[in-house]
Design a protein that fits this description.
Length: 516
């Protein structure tokens, strides 16, 4: 895993590098700009910068200084560069001034866009450009972009040329991923030293494009001195959670997952949960549901057992169902009536093992997240709408600060929380917070969350709840990416059952890579 930093932590990181490690700020800027140039050339100029037309739009702060460095390195590589400065050149920061002077010293020109200056020259330059570099605002921006600067960003977004963001798209909040008034819509982004929280959100998935982390020439262990807000999971981390099985492994040792889910008209959800559990390695899966739903399901499943919940004696029937199981997944398609609520409350209070709570089992407790305190090892897996209902907020409010919302639900429920979406978040009561690197649109398909619940349930048979959630989120996301690649880079059309079907090969590849 790699550390993910907040806005304040990134400032502290730079300060420590400069004041304690003795690395001059100009050296950091030079390294950042040079590394960003490499990413720009690779991502947008097809590895051949010579003769390309690039427009660099700079602000007066250090992000603009990075832009001047990029302009200089592009010119050295034979690129035709036009530089625009948004603001008064007399107000350029000290480090940015040094690189502005260096650019001019090499014969480069700067088009100054003072407040209210017409944008025709900028628009004309961008019309013929192969790429437009956004070096207006960096990580430090914490206020809405308004007025003339907003007009510049709108003009950049109106250009047909691909846009390249320096550190993060101007207008993207580094902490939340929200939009500060208006934001650049980038095709690719080069961020410096470490990922920022805001770059690992659905908002950033829309605005930042392909994100690359650029080395700025200081050791990563500086993070130990300034702290990090989260950890970014990597495919290699899976090898720490998933272990090869011996030839003598039997089905009971592999785990038995109880799937308490489904109702009349909603019989697909429990089948997807069970399918996900078995494909993720559970040895056995039993769907426990209402009698009418069980009758419908039994005609469709081969490898999965079924059991009926007795509405007259729910506690007795649930005790029988839970006996001998290693984990439970509860909620998908289960209904929200009195019988369902009684069953869920009983399982929360009586089951001592890992309990994955999803869908209806979340929504039925809108505004009452403390009910999950009764469970010993609960893993809540809400999407933003479900989390909003639990906390009494709007889905928009959740998406405006996903990290804060996940932590809030952890505090209110005492559970591990999996906030689904692009860059799914896994949060724990001991302050651990892991972010998935995956933002894969093919996973936006009916039943995807049900499959994830089954995967986590299977992994929870042998892993602690937090680790099971992290591993489940990773294999789920990587399965989506693998399917997309196998289908020509498709961004739609995947079926939830195909997520599960891709798991055995994916897990085998992870373990094989770990042994290599």
């Amino acid at each position: 895993m790699t550390p993910v930093l907040s806005r304040a932590q990134m400032r502290a990181f730079d300060k420590h590098a400069i004041e304690t490690c003795g690395v001059p700020s100009l050296v950091l800027m030079e390294n950042a700009g040079r590394g960003a140039t490499d990413v720009l050339v690779r991502e947008l100029l097809e590895k051949d910068p010579e003769g390309a037309e690039v427009v660099v739009v700079c602000g007066t702060g250090n992000n603009g200084g990075d832009g001047f460095v990029i302009a200089r390195h592009l010119r050295v590589r034979g690129t035709n560069v036009e530089v625009f400065l948004v603001g008064d050149a007399r107000k350029v920061s000290a480090d940015a001034r040094a690189n502005l002077d260096a650019w001019r010293g090499l014969g480069g020109t700067v088009h100054e866009l003072a407040l209210g200056e017409p944008l025709e020259a900028l628009s004309e330059a961008m019309a013929d450009a192969d790429a437009v570099v956004d070096a207006l605002f960096g990580t430090g921006l914490d206020r809405p972009i308004e007025g003339y600067q907003a007009e510049v960003i709108r003009a950049m977004n109106a250009s047909t040329a691909p846009r390249f963001a320096v550190d993060l798209p101007s207008g993207l909040d580094a902490d939340t991923g929200g939009t500060l008034g208006v934001a650049v819509q980038a095709t690719a982004t080069a961020t410096f030293a470490h990922h920022k929280l805001g770059l690992l959100t659905p908002g950033a998935a829309r605005l930042a494009g392909r994100v690359s982390v650029v080395d700025i020439g200081v050791p990563g262990d500086i993070v130990a001195h300034v702290g990090g807000s989260a950890q970014l999971a990597e495919a290699s981390d899976l090898a720490n959670w998933l272990e090869p099985r011996s030839a003598s492994t039997h089905k009971n040792a592999s785990g038995h997952v109880a799937v308490i889910a489904g109702s009349a008209g909603k019989t697909g959800a429990p089948q997807l949960v069970a399918h996900g559990a078995l494909r993720a390695g559970a040895g056995l899966a039993t769907i426990a549901t209402w009698p009418a739903a069980a009758a419908a399901i039994e005609g469709h499943v081969l490898e999965v057992m079924t059991a009926r919940i007795d509405t007259e004696k729910p506690a007795d029937s649930l005790d029988a169902i839970l006996a001998g199981k290693q984990s439970v997944v509860i909620g998908p398609g289960f209904g929200m009536g009195d019988d369902a609520r009684t069953a869920v409350e009983y399982v929360l209070a009586s089951w001592l093992g890992p309990l994955v709570v999803d869908a209806d089992a979340l929504s039925m407790f809108a505004g009452r997240p403390s009910v999950f305190m009764a469970a010993k090892k609960a893993i809540l897996t809400p999407h933003p709408g479900e989390l909003a209902r639990l906390l009494g907020k709007s889905a928009a409010a959740i998406e405006a600060d996903r990290f804060g919302a996940a932590r809030e639900l952890v505090a209110a429920s005492g559970a591990v929380v999996v906030l689904k979406g692009a860059h799914t978040i896994v949060a724990s009561h001991d302050a651990r917070l892991v972010v998935a690197p995956v933002a894969c649109p093919v996973l936006a398909t009916a039943g995807s969350g049900d499959t994830l619940g089954g995967i986590i349930g299977a992994l929870a048979c042998g892993l602690p709840p937090f680790e099971a959630a992290c591993a489940g989120v990773m294999v789920h996301g990587l399965a989506g990416e693998a399917w997309s690649q196998a289908h020509g880079g498709a961004d739609r059309g995947m079926l939830a059952s195909e997520i599960a079907d891709g798991l055995p090969a994916l897990i085998a590849a992870v373990l094989r890579a770990a042994r290599a």
